[in-house]
Fold this sequence. Notes:
It contains 5 helices and 10 strands. By secondary structure, the chain is an alpha+beta fold. The protein has a single domain, classed as Nucleoside Triphosphate Pyrophosphohydrolase (Alpha-Beta Complex), CATH 3.90.79.10. Strands 1, 2, 3, 4, 5, 6, 9 and 10 form an 8-stranded mixed sheet that branches. A hairpin with a 5-residue loop joins strand 1 (about 40-50) and strand 2. Helix 4 packs antiparallel against helix 5. The protein is globular, with a radius of gyration of 16 Å. The protein starts with a helix and ends with a helix. About 30% of the residues are buried. The model has no long low-confidence stretch (mean pLDDT about 95).
Amino acid sequence: MENLLQLLKQYRPFNGQESRDREEICRLLRERDDVWDRSGLAHMTASAWVTNPDRKYILMAYHNLYQSWSWLGGHADGEKDLLAVAMREVQEESGLTEIRPVSRDIFSLEILCVNGHEKRGVYVPSHLHLNVTYLIEGNPEEKTRIKADENSGVRWFNREDAVSASSEVWFRERIYRKLNEKMMRFHAAQSL
């Protein structure tokens, strides 16, 4: 926990959403012991904005629960290395093995609202994902596969189409557009 708190303190928020979400994630990390597992109504997750080497394409999965194309990611489930969680989730959800972090630094922060739903016949109440996102690079030539219990499609989209493919308005307008903008700024800075 201390390591993540230190990383969050060093992280420079991109906008007001990230600034406020960082405050809340830090507060919850300090005050609650159950944020690393799913027992509480707010818990740590890690996501990946998966791009190809020239940053023109984004890998998305068609998420069965939300009936929408979305980024890849999942629950920490006790693991405190959130980059490792994001990498594992990309491999599990897409089948890609030729992946690498573009940077080991946190790429983005979000607190995500998850509506109540049934998973494997069990009701899961509405809750919050305290999410840390990483920028991950993959090879679009590598064969992908679905993870049938979570998604029914895995596909590379050009940057703009990745955003518009999502049927979740809040994600499309507030998260995915932000991730593309941050990625292009990061790519431009790395190219200097």
